[in-house]
Amino acid sequence: MALGACGPADAPEQGERVIYRHSMDGVPGSLDPARASSVYNKFLAVNLFDTLYRYRYLARPYALAPNLALELPQVSEDGLVYTIRLKKGVRFVDDPAFPGGIGREVTAQDFIYSIQRHFDPGTLAEGAWLWQGRIVGLDDWKAAGSDYAQTVPGLRALDNHTVRVELTAPFPQFTHTLAQGYAAIVPREAVDHYGKGFSNQPVGSGPFTLASIDSARAVLLRNPNYHGDAFALDAEGFDPKRHDGLGLQQLSGRRPPFVDEVIIEFITEDASRWNALVSGDAHLIKVPAGQFDQVLEKRQPLTLKPEFTERFRYDASLESGFVYTNFNMADERIGYHPDPEQDVRNRALRCAMVKAFDWGRRNASFYSGIGRIFPGIITPGVPEFDAEANHEYVRHDLEGAKRLLARFGWNATNLPVLEYGFPASVTERQMFEQFRGFMVELGFPPERVQPLTFASFADYYRAYSNREVMLITSSWTMDYPDAENTMQLFFGLNQSPGSNSSNYSNPRFDELYRSSATLAPSEARTEMFREMNQQVIEDCASITGISRTLLFMWDRDLVMVPDRSFVGGFYLRFVDFDRAAEDQQ
Amino acid sequence: MNRDPAFSRPHGPRSLMRGLFRTGAGISGFVIISGFALLAMATAAGAIGSEWWQTSAGAWQGPGAEHWFGTNRLGQDIFARAVYSTQTAFEVGILVTIASTLLGATLGGLAGWYSPGWLDESILWLKGVLDSIPFYLLIAAIAYAMQGSPWAMHLGMTAAFWTGTARLVRGEVIRLKEREFVAAARAIGLPGPLIIFRHVLPNTFNILLVQATLVFVAAIKTEVILSFLGIGTRDGISWGVMLAESSQEVLAGRFGNFLAASGFLFVLLMGFNLLSDAMQDELDIRGQTA
Amino acid sequence: MRSGAYIFRKLVSAFALLIGVTFISFLLMVWFGPDLTYQSLGKNPTADQISEVRRQLGYDRPFMERYGAFLGQLATLDLGHSDSTGEPVSRLMARTLPVSLALVLPGFLIGNLLGILLGLWSAWQRGSMTDRFIMGASVAGMSLSFLVIIILLQVLLCTPWGLNLFPARGWSVDGLSAYLYYATVPTLSLVLITLGYNTRFYRSVMVEELNREHIRTALAYGKRTRAILFTHVLKNSLAPILTRLLFSIPIIVISGSLLLESYFGIPGIGKVTYDAITNGDQPVLKAVVSLTAVLFVLVQLAVDLAYRWVDPRVGPS
After folding, report:
1. Residue C41 to residue C44: CA distance in whole angstroms
2. Highest mean pLDDT range out of A225-234, A300-309, C50-59?
3. Is A83 helix (H, G, I), strand (E, B) or coil?
4. Which residue is closest to C253 within chain B, CA to CA?
5. Domain annotation covers residue B208
């Protein structure tokens, strides 16, 4: 299997090196799990390092599975104490950072260190928010100076392979947080040895090791000492209805990872990614929305054109997250206003704008018509989603919108100037222009709909975290498959600079949020979430929302079920070429 | 070298025009530029292309009677957008040209007059510093430093372009310093700056004119690339933004944006280059290009 | 000694230049530049976390302290690690600089070589149809935007809409054939974009030479054409040619490569630097800016020396 091969992949022959060519539509920055915030960083982090838990490869809805842990945690009656047993004999890779250059065994203390790092300012870690105020003694440890010689009462190693975590309050999603890239286990020796360079010099115990990385590609090599258990179809959630014919059966009983080498190309430009697939430079791509017309025969149900099904398999799945446009409720021109009459008028304006926003056209122009539109903030991917919900909130109703404006005394002379913020990019600018079109249809003079561009996303993030942006369009990727993750987007205490970029503040909503926070998933909790959702809808705090459908295409000679959601990078270890087909040749 | 204006015919604006109209290149250049300038003014007045932001038509329509270049992803008329971009191009070109010419002439004049001396050395130092920072990096840095003000692009370009003008003007002033009329002005006791700005600089008018055309071209071309990088035109539409959109679209087989923007851009730039050529030939001057 | 004083003055002005470049760069890219704070924050940051990160990244230190640290690190060549990826900056530069050079040099050399040849031919035939055609084509070339050329070539050569002979992006160069495979389209773009300017410049230089008395005399005596061209015209044009070539180098390597690398996905120093500016990755910026400043100063020095060697009449003013 030569590098740079052009043309369709062939199943490898005996003795040949098996190389899988993956592609990503972005470039990872740091490989340090403490900075695994972007989906690209995370993809690499979970393949180079180990988390205690991961998600089952094939199970949908998504389900947790043990990774470095032996089994799911033992949780005490009150939900405060988690006892987790680690596998024995798992080793870090050999590296000069260790004495003698030999990688040592992964212990419970390593896990504790990896979590504690997030509360050490020197790490510049990004995952602290997951455990902030939730683990006994951890915040105090930080306040006392983050001294690693001090132990944290809530993070104890009962022995070398058993961890005991004590929470301040029940946290039903805690195990999910241990499947995040942030919770991957790093050896202290390597962090001390490499310092800032650790972001580029990963030393982990994951299924792959890093051979090289630059701004164009990364090369991963199979870790021959990986601890992965033999592949079992049932354990991974195999469903004959959905997974038949994919060749997954041949993976049974074998120990991952299955390929010798993975080359990950970072291809941000949509069309180049498509070319890479067609020419064989990449075995898998996320198909750019602009290419859907060329590739899809039908949209309902989603079918590929025959000339492509010959060479490729495909899978369309909903993202775990959504895209929305928030109103900055802290901005008196459009949000909360101290004068109750004006406050009501502002609400009418927001609701009119929501009605005037044509989700159908947005879906057609930018998501090829296959995005999933839904009202509110409970996304289609979670169990709490109500498929029967009233879609009035996302229905395009221009007449109703105009009537609303007229009724509350808004007209072309007193409408505020809308400032729509976005980071500079072609697509974002086009989305703005379409938004302006919608607002003009509503009755805004075109010069009252202004773009507020920012040179980079970080700049944009800074601006809206400082409440400087009136209309904030962004997307939210869920951290765990639980609607609580999107509810907290409108919780009053999470206002800017927190994730509540809308600066929404509703006492009833906040009360419900607090009550539901410690509840495990249940009907009662779902009812509360739905009521909270209704609150956001009635206040017209956000134009929401759409979940994008991601389309993957990959070479037919490969056996895999790609996922960009919670399974994410965890599926890389299960990718293999179809050796059964090759045997038949 | 035949660069000393003293050895060519003295050119006032009228004789310059007559000279330009002698060549085919000069005429075509002038006609093209005037045409575009009129177009720019017409769009500024709202007579043409005012519907460039309209998203009412269907997406991706091919060229036809209603939309000469078809429509784009949002159903906007590509031709209207290309026409409106003329205004953006002229705005960028004129602002940058005037600013960099004024700045370059002033600093170049001062440097040349007070050469050799500390003022000259300082201005030369400043030029050297700005020249040694890679062009796009300088502009990108200014754009980010100005936190996304709509004038960041213009300021950045001015900061980069004035050095070329200054270099030329400084050379001319040094040469002109030795001339009789300057000695005479000094003899009657006129102050230095007055001599520079009232008597010496006006003699560099031809050089400045040639350089201005080159800077205009450079400004428009730079805007295109800056818009592609995302730090160019912020509000409104420009050929650079259209080309940035087209860079992805062409690989999916949609050429409308590309053809319209590159077509308009090419013709306007040709016009300027032809005119600039004719001027350089006529005045026997060479400007400073990139 | 006049030479000694001359060299001393040159060194002083070179040093002043370096100080100036580093100061302006510091001002623009560090003091006023974007900061990494919001990229280093996770979701749901608290105001405390924000100020913590800012303190860690050193953003709340006073101006002189930060500038002093900046200069100190430059002087000791302590390049540090990239703030975005953690890669040691020295390794980053060692990795990306050769790529940019390999990407840009062929186009640069070919563009200038062709420019010289076409300029010479055009100057020799000045006034003829050939000359007018070449000049016309040059003006057309100057009127094309770099971006337009790149997009056009990519469509014509790398996609099914055209010839589809070359890759639309990438740089897996492990041998000569791979190098040709990946470098051809970018090189072609660079040549096309610079050819117009080069041809016109070289033509005007050659024309001036050809107008000189001694050339006209030689022609009148009927010496062989080629001998005249090569021995006299080229040699005397050497000064402006060298100047142009040398001055273009730093610009071409960093600015010229930026667009090509962004567009064709090539991991070179132009793209890395641009990303560093947009991300506020200061260690990388420090290194690149100092490198270009040093290069520029060296080029200035080289040009001065070249002038003195080529035309001994030119001395210190």
Report:
1. 8
2. A225-234
3. strand
4. B134
5. yes
What is the number of other CB atoms lying within 10 angstroms of the CB of residue A94?
15
Nearest to B247 among C16, C139, C151 (CB): C151
C182-209: pLDDT as tens digits: 999 999 999 998 899 889 888 888 888 7
Residue entry with tokens 């020197």: A122
Q: Residue B248: its chain A contacts at CB < 8 A?
A: 269-271, 290, 426
Q: How many CB atoms lie within 10 A of CB C44?
A: 19
Are C128 and C190 spatial neighbours (Cβ–Cβ below 8 Å)?
A: no
Encoded tokens for C146 = 């770099």
What band does A264 get if pLDDT is binned at 50, 70 and 90? Answer: very high
The Cα–Cα gap between B246 and A269 comes to 12
What is the rounded distance in angstroms from the CA atom of residue C39 to the CA atom of residue C50? 11
Does residue B78 form part of some domain? yes
- Cα–Cα distance, A382 to B195 (Å, whole number): 79
CATH number of the domain enclosing B174: 1.10.3720.10
Q: How many B×C Cβ pairs under 8 Å?
A: 144
- Of A268, B226, B86, the closest CA to residue C146 belongs to B226
Number of other CB atoms surrounding residue B214 within 10 Å: 23
The residues near A551 (Cβ < 8 Å, ≥ 6 apart) are A286, A287, A292, A295, A302, A314, A315, A316, A370
A61 cis-preceded (ω within 30 degrees of 0): yes
A474 touches chain C (CB under 8 A): no
Which of C168, C254, C278 shows the shortest C-beta gap to B134? Answer: C254
Alpha-carbon distance C303 to B132, whole Å? 14
Has residue B219 been placed in a domain? yes
Q: Residue A429 and residue A361: Cα distance in Å, rounded?
A: 16
- CB–CB of C290/C24 below 8 Å? no
Distance separating alpha carbons of residues C84 and C282, to the nearest angstrom: 9
This prediction's pTM? 0.89
- Neighbour count for residue A448 (Cβ, 10 Å): 16
Mean pLDDT of the region B263-286: 85
* Tally of structural domains, chain B: 1
C171/A267 Cβ within 8 A? no
Q: How many residues does chain A have?
A: 585
Torsion of CA B170, B173, B178, B181, to 10 degrees: -170
What ipTM does the predicted assembly reach? Answer: 0.85
Residue B115 covered by a domain = yes
Q: Quote the domain boundaries for residue B111.
A: 10-47+69-289
Half-sphere exposure of C256 (CA within 13 A, CB side): 25
Count how many pairs of residues, chain A against chain C, have C-beta atoms within 8 Å: 132
β-partners of residue A21 are A263
Q: What is each CA distance from C117 to C125, C206, C240, in whole angstroms?
A: 12, 10, 15
| CB-based contact, B50 to chain A, within 8 Å | no
pLDDT of residue B65: 83
- Altogether, the residues listed in chain C come to a count of 317
Interface contact B186, partner A, CB < 8 A: no
